[in-house]
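Lab notebook page, bench 4
Experiment: in silico fold of construct C2
Operator: M.H.
Input chain length: 130 residues
Purpose: comparison with the prior construct
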Amino acid sequence: PGICKRKSGIFLSFSLQSDCIPQEDFTPELYKVFLTNICPRPEIDNIFSEIGAKSKPYLTVEQLTDFINVRQRDPRLNEILYPPLKPEQVQCLVDKYELNEMLAQKGWHESHTHTHALTHIHCFRGTLVF
């Protein structure tokens, strides 16, 4: 029952009367909105809020590096065999996963709450939420 209600709500949020989206109407932008409705990730919003991205829609490479090394890194890891990431390595992650090229060049990573893009969710799924 809960799944049916959620599914109906998702389709209603797109102003659709049936369970079908015509293929020609299923654009990348619509896919991103659809995925956001199906798989909400409030913990990612919390990460950006806690790190200090409340007033700006992005994280700097320094903030992201600190998050990965302090909050995400397992403290039991040997620092010689598995050293913490350097800002240059984090910049490579941003370059790889941030689809907004202008932000990636500046070393910023967009916040989920301030944009309709879902690139950061893919980035966090692939790199931050191990």
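Observations: Residues 111-122, 124-130 have pLDDT under 50 and may be disordered. Residues 2-38 form one domain.
Next step: discuss at group meeting.
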